[in-house]
Automatic annotation (TrEMBL):
The keyword Hydrolase applies. One of its GO terms (molecular function) is arylformamidase activity. Pfam families: Cyclase. The keyword Phosphoprotein does not apply. Its EC number is 3.5.1.9. It comes from Flavobacterium collinsii. It comes from the Bacteria. Gene3D superfamilies: Putative cyclase. This is Kynurenine formamidase. Keywords: Hydrolase.
Length: 249
């Protein structure tokens, strides 16, 4: 099946999934000092919500997870504001023109940083969504334990440049656009969403802009332009697990 979005034609039968599935195994990626997700059957006395246990005709699981620490997720500015903003209210459109770029973060002191100049060198034209794949691009990103590893991050200057380039949706294969231990400054988050004061939101803050973290883009997927379908679960929360899908144009 093919569809036309604006003037672009895409083949809906050939999706490119760049999300990381959530599991209750040690293969699940973890960030922010938490344990792996829990997926387990409901138990009522002798009744167990698991067909293989012989006590139920259905599988009936509870799931305990954290969207920020357990895999691919999309967040709105409610992630850093005093007042509540929901990703389910902020994200109202789901198809976007997107550009995938690949960057090897620059060594600055003890950190690896994605800089403005690196993005400027590879970004071509205008786009609604920007996807950043970082090098090295090992497959263990899909199961990596990020806590206390000081992963690469986005410089404040780079985040400002992305915002000023009118990019509404930023997707990255890291657990955060900001430094892991940054004393709560959150410079890249604030710069991208144009949040000047987290206690009193400024009128020009970017309510409909989103950040998606912990994607995985395999090496077989080439840099360039795509159509992005950005889907979330309908959580009234600052963030939701998400399933970004790319389509070749």
């Amino acid at each position: 099946m093919k569809a036309k979005i604006n003037t672009f034609e895409i083949d809906l039968s050939k999706p490119i999934d760049i999300s990381i599935p959530l599991t209750n195994t040690d293969e699940n990626p973890i960030a922010w000092y938490i344990e792996k997700p829990v997926i387990e059957p409901v138990v009522f006395g002798d009744w167990i919500g698991k067909v293989s246990e012989g006590k139920s005709s259905t599988n009936f699981n509870n799931i305990f997870f954290n969207p920020h620490g357990h895999g691919t997720h999309t967040e709105c500015l409610g992630h850093i504001t005093n007042d509540f903003y929901s990703i389910n209210e902020c994200l109202k459109q789901f198809f976007f023109l997107a550009q995938l770029i690949t960057i090897e973060p620059e060594k600055i002191g003890d950190d690896f940083v994605i800089t403005k100049n690196q993005i400027l060198d590879v970004l071509s034209g205008t786009t609604e969504a920007l996807l950043i794949r970082t090098l090295p691009n090992q497959k263990d990103k899909k199961s990596r334990k990020y806590s206390n590893t000081n992963p690469p991050y986005l410089s404040e200057e780079a985040a400002i440049f992305i915002r000023e380039s009118k990019i509404q949706h930023l997707l990255i294969d890291l657990p955060s656009v900001d430094k892991e231990h940054d004393e709560g400054k959150l410079l890249a988050h604030k710069a991208f969403w144009n949040v000047k004061d987290t206690l009193h939101l400024n009128a020009d803050a970017r309510l409909n802009a989103t950040i998606t973290e912990m994607i995985f883009v395999s090496d077989e997927i080439k840099d360039g332009d795509y159509i992005l379908n950005l889907q979330i679960a309908s959580f009234e929360n600052d963030a939701s697990p998400s399933k970004p899908i790319l389509y070749k144009i």
